[in-house]
Amino acid sequence: MNDRFLKACRRQPTDATPIWLMRQAGRYMAEYRAIRAKHSMLEVIRTPELACEITLQPIRAFALDAAILFADILPILIGMGLELDFVKGEGPQIFNPIRTPADVAALRTPAAAENVPFTLEAIRLVRRELADKMPLIGFSGAPFTLASYAIEGEGSKHHLQTKTFMASQPAAWHELMHKLSTVISDYLIAQVKAGAQAVQIFDSWAGVLAAGDYRESVLPYVHRITKEVRAEVDVPIIYFGTEMNAVLPSLAEIPIDVIGMDWRTPIDEGWAQIGERFGVQGNLDPVMLFAPWGEVQRRVDDILARVNRRPGHIFNLGHGILPGTPVDTVKRLVEYVHEKTGEKALHG
Length: 348
Ligand code: CP3
Known about the structure:
The protein is an alpha/beta fold. It has a single domain, classed as TIM Barrel. Helices cover 51% and strands 12% of the residues. It has 18 helices and nine strands. It has helices at residues 4-9, 30-38, 41-46, 48-61, 76-80, 101-106, 112-115, 117-130, 143-152, 160-168, 170-194, 211-217, 219-232, 248-251, 267-274, 293-307, 327-341, 343-347; strands spanning 67-68, 84-87, 91-94, 136-141, 198-203, 237-241, 258-260, 279-284, 313-317. The strands form two sheets. Strands 1-4-5-6-7-8-9 form a seven-stranded parallel β-sheet. It has a two-stranded antiparallel ribbon with strand order 2-3. Strand 7 (258-260), helix 15 and strand 8 (279-284) form a beta-alpha-beta unit. The longest helix has 25 residues, at 170-194. The two termini are 25 Å apart.
């Protein structure tokens, strides 16, 4: 078993720095586009064999140290009562977004086994296929990022409806966060019971909030979810967000193992702010993979020098890999991180 990733999550020394990439399966790969040409996004997510096959595509192509389950953060909203579809060229859309306290009251909180059984089955298939070669990461969206999608109905620049709802309907906001947290905790625990060996909570948009609003209206729910998961299952928990600088210190209160960081802050400075008891995942700007290899290398060198092989670093991008990313650069990146940090590099 390649256990570099799990060891790094526990801040134990490793023979080389582990690397995986957010959205490592996706449109930049021809193999992925071939499947998507024949099946819609929801079809793929709901068909365990296809989700399993896509999960394994980047594992076959690159020397990655972990697989991440292929799914999306949004489908759990369907069982709660939201009408979701992935619209070609426009991304996900919700056709009955939440706009009133009555909409929140009407939301259901189904168990994952009933809501997304296909995802739990995909996890079992992937574990069987990986045959303990490397760990599988499960994931969920965090309550704020899911709430924003549920309220806006689509991606949003200003999160105007979401922030307004939070500020003007505090009781309904808390009920919404409470319901989402119930569904998310159960979902993460079910994924681990189905075979996921670590989980990542994606709070990609929480950085749009003022620190005070984050601490008051969002953090207690992330805290609750992580505590509930911890109480049930023993796997590393990674919490990822972008533009989270202002709230990094308050994350020290919650039981997570690793913080996923975007590229805006130099990784050593972010790490110093969060504190030594956490591992850190990141943080190459995904756009830089479009630059000439020498430039990619220079930025990877900078990240690795800042970390200086301190136990607890998991190399990743600062956000998901983008469509159009050159596959050859991805391959070289993965190999280069291992080469630069491997035992040979250290002693030879
Ligand atoms: O990391 C992984 O590879 C696991 C699978 C995964 C996907 N999305 C697949 C996907 C994960 C963990 C996500 C997370 C996700 N999804 C987030 C949080 C992280 C982030 O990227 O900020 C959010 C906000 C979503 C919602 C979502 N799904 C959006 C906004 C979009 C459209 C944007 C885009 O990139 O197309 C999706 C679609 C989506 N999710 C695709 C993939 C591979 C593209 C689907 C396609 O067209 O084939």
